[in-house]
Amino acid sequence: MEGLTISQVAKEANVNIETIRYYERRELISDPPRTESGYRKFPQEVVEDVKFIKLTQDLGFTLEEIKNLLSASKDENFRSVEIQDFATSKIKEIETKIHDLHQMKTLLEDLTEKCPGSSVSKGECPIIKNFKGVS
After folding, report:
1. Cα–chain-centroid distance for residue 79?
2. Does 84 reside within a domain?
């Protein structure tokens, strides 16, 4: 039986073995066939799937979203417009997060400027007062 061991897949995809096992449990990659002695033998395509999963995770996709993307990429009736719509939706989600993070940064910068540093008690600290909703 041809195929790769779990350690070979992990090495080629530049992840650890536990990552491969985790992806199996989450059903992102299929359970590979086993040899008569019980060893798993992964097809070479699994390496590319694992690399795809890691890249899309790094881009902020959830494992459920990645599962859907992988499924779509293997679908005989693949429609790129559906992936484009999905990517457009993800862009809007990222833009919302960026906006929220910018607001958080602005608030923290403002509070930091108002903080006199070590010369003020905890009860008078503008940062703590703001977080507790005290005016």
Report:
1. 24
2. no
